[in-house]
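Hello again, I could really use a second opinion on something today. I've dropped the whole record in just underneath, so have a look.
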Amino acid sequence: DVQLQASGGGLVQPGGSLRLSCAASGFPFDDYAIGWFRQAPGKEREGVSVISVSGERTFYAQSVKGRFSIFRDAAKNTVYLQMNSLKPEDTAVYYCYVNYILRDYWGQGTQVTVSS
């Protein structure tokens, strides 16, 4: 079974940092792009970042560009989202995502709260 286990969320003050992890299993990790999405209360889920199979290509939403970075560790089957200079508007549940054989899979989500 495909599993995406997201972790690393928490409460942080504005300007702080967090690193999210997405541990993947049940599919050939090295062959698929992985994405991070987030959903804030009362808002639709939005894409945050995507990393290509090789890790050489990355995409960031305009709202996080320059503050977030995504990278993957093939040895650990894990994708990371390093989040710096966090803002209150980054508060959301963060999900990792993969489309495997034309089916969408989501992790269980990890809560990020940015507040003083």
